[in-house]
Amino acid sequence: xxxxxxxxxxxxxxxxxxxxxxxxxxxxxxxxxxxxxxxxxxxxxxxxxxxxxxxxxxxxxxxxxxxxxxxxxxxxxxxxxxxxxxxxxxxxxxxxxxxxxxxxxxxxxxxxxxxxxxxxxxxxxxxxxxxxxxxxxxxxx
Length: 141
Fold this sequence. Notes:
- The chain has five helices and four strands.
- The chain is of the alpha/beta class.
- The protein has a single domain (about 5-140), classed as Aldolase class I (TIM Barrel, Alpha-Beta Barrel), CATH 3.20.20.
- It has a four-stranded parallel sheet with strand order 1-2-3-4.
- α1 crosses α3 and α4 (about 75-90) packs parallel to α5 (about 115-125).
- The chain starts with a helix and ends in a 6-residue tail after the last strand.
């Protein structure tokens, strides 16, 4: 997203009590290009911009959150730890959700996220961030 549009979207979020949630899929550029077909660099730059420029504007109901889908065989505790370290370089209070993967569409051949994988990823992220949670736990195997 262009930074002018990003700032406008953030202003609207602040005015309306909303927030901006970033789906930080991968830390590894290779994974981002291999799975998504595009670099993750712009998303990281936009997240950094919003975090540094706006996070302090409202911390009681955070204006910025992040999530990562825990895709088995691709997103492990090392990948999540690197994403969490990046987030914490902006502010360790930014909420981070780890989401269970459910096989659909083009990735039907993968299993659901295991509870063990989710807990390992949560522990890796918690080394860097204060607000880490596992979302949609009912999908964990």
